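Q: Structure for this?
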Amino acid sequence: MNNLVEKLLQGDRRSAARLITLIENDAPEKKDILQQIYPYTGRAHVVGITGSPGAGKSSLVDELTREIRREVLKVGIIAVDPTSPFSGGALLGDRIRMQEHATDRGVFIRSMGTRGSLGGLAQATRDVIRVLDAFGCDVILVETVGVGQSELDIMHHADTTLVVLTPQAGDHIQTIKAGIMEIADIFVINKADLGGSGKMVTDIETMLDLSPLVNGWRPPVLTTIAIDHQGIPELWAAIKRHKAWRKENKAGANRERVRRELAEIIQRYLYQLISRELDERFEHLLEKVAERQLDPYSAAMDIIKQSWKGGLP
Amino acid sequence: MNNLVEKLLQGDRRSAARLITLIENDAPEKKDILQQIYPYTGRAHVVGITGSPGAGKSSLVDELTREIRREVLKVGIIAVDPTSPFSGGALLGDRIRMQEHATDRGVFIRSMGTRGSLGGLAQATRDVIRVLDAFGCDVILVETVGVGQSELDIMHHADTTLVVLTPQAGDHIQTIKAGIMEIADIFVINKADLGGSGKMVTDIETMLDLSPLVNGWRPPVLTTIAIDHQGIPELWAAIKRHKAWRKENKAGANRERVRRELAEIIQRYLYQLISRELDERFEHLLEKVAERQLDPYSAAMDIIKQSWKGGLP
């Protein structure tokens, strides 16, 4: 077994940090590392935190961490910024606020920025979750910056997803697309002191009345004032309730998640294989398309017919 | 041939709009449509416009359109917002400004929001470019909202990429990641009246002095005040210069682009095939991973060995 992995399983922080860097950099040993770690994963509860910019997600994560630490549970925090190839200054800045947690050996904090393709970022996030899981984190909080498509992809890796909104700032439910509302296991109306939160709760509850329940879980709608720790114990309790519920009802969701992961890993491997073979086995087709003698859709289908042993589209 | 495609090739606007909608909705006839259109594409010059939020990209597109229309060329505008599943209100709002162009039969404007996966959005953008190309647009301006990874992906479809910055608003070149600087064929410092643009030009020129030229093209650094049309004729002249240069030097870039497109289309088809087969041929492996008896990386490799006739990773 890889020496770093051995140390990781003993709870060594530096090994955790180094393994995450290897994964982020897509190092050659990545596949081996993940294979070795896999049997030690599946224990942590992963909480995804998404929502509109300015909703106070970072403060919420801070206070939630403080709350969870009261139970002496080990917490991992992954802050993901998929929006910008500009440096992740804002997120790191936020994280500097977390002085209290930074010196707490029971909290492991990591920021992730844009690396490779976006699909790659969601996959890298899943892999980093696995490292922190094997590292022994009981709860892993995954915070994203905005609510774009990549954030939705990342939330697929969460066991419990919090959608954080504010009563103001244009977060009226009619402006929020279905994709966001559907992934919420718990709604959090943060900055509840701003006013208007009562109406927002009513609006979301009304919407939920009209929506079919997914597997019987009705997302609670909670109000918080994160910077004052108000509503945070109730939020943590709701997360634990959802965790317990999920344990009873997870079979279908888990299968779906595994299916998705397998398809993604296979697709990724095949992309590398195809890119290589386009310069070798299929160079004549590539040339034909480049010279516009053949359209790319027919060429692609031809290549699949020649390379894929299973059924065709 | 599809009736809509026939009408498209005759320059019918409504057919263009309907074909784009079919493509965006991933309609079953999409593949046929794109195959039929393909031979009539490759004529338009595609200009990508990206840069930091608030850099005035929309105004720049407006004024560039006005400039191009002076030569009685047909212009297509595709405004892409990949950042948010929230409704594309902002972009559409911007577009309402374009009253002048909206009634101009020589300008076709289309907004695109997040649909399906992000890879999907970049691919959909390319397909919409093809429709407007076959429709007879001489120049297609593709404007993105921000500078995230998906914007970079979309810019791969441009023949000429403009990176738009402002002299203020934190756009100091040391904060701009390499990914952005490398895709620029032309730098545009917009809002040059804000002051500080001289220093910004010098900084970028210094950076270019230190960077190796890609195929011998050195990106010019232009200053504009889009809302006053200042610098716009010079920008259009620079785009035409780049177009001419590209014509002389495009062989390698074109091959790379075709390779990328083929790999993406194949990958997309295969993802559908794999997802289906995971419920059929490979259900036993899926079950094993779901029960954590097997790690997903080994399962993926096993499936590839059984399904892919070519070489392995």
